[in-house]
């Protein structure tokens, strides 16, 4: 409404002043340095308006030229960032497709953009390592933040994959002491000790794993079987295991009495020729619920012909659980121990009927 009123007032003023200006245009005379400039007042006003407009356009043009380098720089930065982001996306796709060399090249190109630098270097390092470019992978990992637990994890993981588990364990020993609650580091530390065959040190770290909860409860149930059977049997064979040793007594009672630990002790006794004692340990400890997790380790125990009681126990379980493939697998292994190869074959066939995934464990 106000704008409409202003327009009406301007039109009214133009209608009133127009005839006056045309009838009496006025006169302006400018004399400067011998030059004389004469014009009407209307001409002077028009000249001032045009001059102001030209000055404004010139100032705007100069300002645009002044800002051109900065705008060009921002444009090229934007283009560079776009290319880096595109390289990152393509690099991730190549990584997922296990096209390691392409992934390494693309992920390194994506470093042109400052976002997620460490993550890009980690992925590029792994890709370069899997592509067989170990020096390049090590160079990328060295550029990561030194005090970042993720950096320590990658360094140790690559050492393990190169078969240098003992060096990885030495590296992680100090790092885990600095970051005892870093679950990923703790899990990798235990794995490196297993791969390096440092069984006593592995058992010594179990209290820390439990205290700082490196594994969830469900994970630890599985982890027990990956630790105790091989650790105990190996220490017994080397004459370094004793139930009175400090590292064994430092374990909680439920760990020392766990099925996984008993399997380790039975394995050790069987290797020492005490097969009857080994069988007795298994019969007194094993429960039906333990068979699935214990199966990969039970089948490695050389019980020989001392399997009668264990075989009776398995047959007893089968009366009420005839569809349990792991029981048939265990029965097959026991028959094989006694030299009954045909019975072992039939039981194994039955096991695969109910549990086809057992074919992988057999191979």
Polypeptide structure, described:
It is a multi-pass membrane protein. Helix content is 74%, strand content 3%. It is mostly helical. Strands 1-2 form a two-stranded antiparallel sheet. The longest helix is centred in the N-terminal third of the chain and has 56 residues, at 41-96. The relative contact order is 0.04.
SSE order, as H and E?
HEEHHHHHHHHHHHHHHHHHHH
Q: What fraction, in percent, of the residue positions are helical?
A: over 70%
Average per-residue pLDDT, rounded, comes to 86
Across the major sheet, the strand order is 1-2
Largest sheet: 2 strands, antiparallel
Could you give a short description of this structure?
74% of the residues lie in helices and 3% in strands.
Task: Provide keyphrases for this structure.
two-stranded antiparallel sheet, single chain, elongated
Topology at a glance:
Blueprint: H1 2-23, E1 28-32, E2 35-39, H2 41-96, H3 100-109, H4 117-130, H5 134-142, H6 149-161, H7 165-178, H8 183-196, H9 199-204, H10 206-211, H11 217-237, H12 246-249, H13 253-256, H14 259-271, H15 275-285, H16 291-298, H17 308-320, H18 325-337, H19 341-354, H20 358-362
Antiparallel strand pairs: 1-2
Helix pairs in contact: 2-3, 3-4, 4-5, 6-7, 6-8, 7-8, 11-14, 14-15, 16-18, 17-18, 18-19
């Amino acid at each position: 409404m106000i704008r409409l009123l202003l327009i009406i007032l301007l039109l009214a003023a133009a209608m009133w002043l127009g005839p006056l200006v045309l009838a009496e245009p006025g006169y302006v005379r400018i004399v400067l340095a011998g030059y004389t400039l004469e014009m009407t007042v209307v001409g002077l006003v028009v000249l001032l308006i045009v001059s102001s407009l030209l000055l404004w356009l010139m100032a705007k043009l100069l300002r645009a030229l002044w800002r051109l380098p900065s705008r060009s720089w921002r444009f090229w930065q934007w283009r560079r960032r776009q290319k880096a982001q595109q390289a990152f996306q393509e690099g991730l796709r190549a990584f997922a497709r296990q096209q390691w060399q392409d992934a390494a090249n693309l992920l390194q190109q994506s470093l042109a953009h400052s976002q997620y630098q460490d993550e890009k270097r980690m992925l590029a390092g792994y890709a370069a390592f899997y592509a067989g470019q170990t020096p390049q992978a090590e160079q990328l990992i060295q550029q990561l933040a030194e005090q970042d637990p993720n950096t320590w994890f990658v360094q140790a993981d690559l050492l393990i994959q190169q078969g240098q588990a003992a060096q990885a364990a030495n590296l992680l020993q100090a790092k885990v002491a600095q970051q005892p609650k870093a679950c990923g580091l703790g899990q990798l530390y235990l794995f490196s000790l297993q791969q390096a065959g440092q069984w006593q040190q592995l058992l010594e770290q179990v209290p820390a794993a439990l205290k700082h909860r490196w594994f969830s409860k469900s994970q630890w149930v599985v982890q027990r079987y990956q630790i105790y059977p091989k650790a105990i049997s190996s220490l017994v064979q080397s004459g370094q295991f004793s139930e009175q040793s400090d590292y064994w007594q430092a374990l909680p009672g439920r760990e020392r009495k766990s099925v996984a630990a008993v399997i380790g002790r039975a394995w050790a006794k069987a290797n020492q020729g005490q097969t009857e004692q080994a069988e007795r340990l298994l019969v007194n400890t094993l429960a039906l619920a333990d068979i699935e997790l214990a199966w990969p380790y039970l089948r490695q125990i050389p019980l020989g012909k001392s399997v009668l009681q264990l075989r009776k126990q398995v047959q007893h379980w089968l009366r009420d659980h005839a569809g349990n493939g792991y029981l048939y697998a265990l029965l097959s292994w026991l028959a094989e121990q006694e030299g009954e190869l045909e019975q072992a074959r039939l039981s194994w066939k039955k096991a695969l009927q109910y549990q086809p995934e057992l074919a992988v464990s057999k191979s």
